[in-house]
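Example record for the data management plan.
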Amino acid sequence: MRFSMPIKVRYADTDLQQVVYFANYLTFFDEALMAYLEAIGYGLPQLLKDGFDTVYVSAKVDFED
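Corresponding structural encoding:
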């Protein structure tokens, strides 16, 4: 299944050069993951009901200029 989700970048998500601050990509990823789970009919309420939860064990963002 292909999935896409537009994310509106807010002013608060950017730095002084009006570029998205790299750590905000983790928030975008979390929003997209939750939207994907809902799109396949398995949103957070269903996960919790079935005894599951999502946990991020590790995350890394590299900035390359």
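Summary line stored alongside the record: The CA atoms of residues 20 and 35 lie 21 Å apart.
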